[in-house]
Design brief:
The chain is mostly helical and 59 residues long. 78% of the residues lie in helices and 0% in strands.
Length: 59
């Protein structure tokens, strides 16, 4: 893992502090993992297909 000073020096000058950038990235990555996990669960228990089928009938 690169050091903090090396990471900070790679950011454009108009970006906020590297800690702020990293916090936003970490939160975004965590949200993506949660979204993926929810989708996987819906697919495994058949809920995803039920939602799809009900939308097909309505639309």
């Amino acid at each position: 893992m690169p050091s903090a000073s090396r990471f900070a020096s790679t950011l454009p000058g108009d970006f906020p502090a590297w800690q702020t950038v990293y916090t936003y990235f970490r939160n975004w990555r965590k949200a993506r993992r949660t979204e993926y996990s929810v989708r996987q669960t819906l697919r495994q228990d058949g809920t995803w297909l039920k939602i799809h089928d009900s939308r097909e009938r309505v639309g």
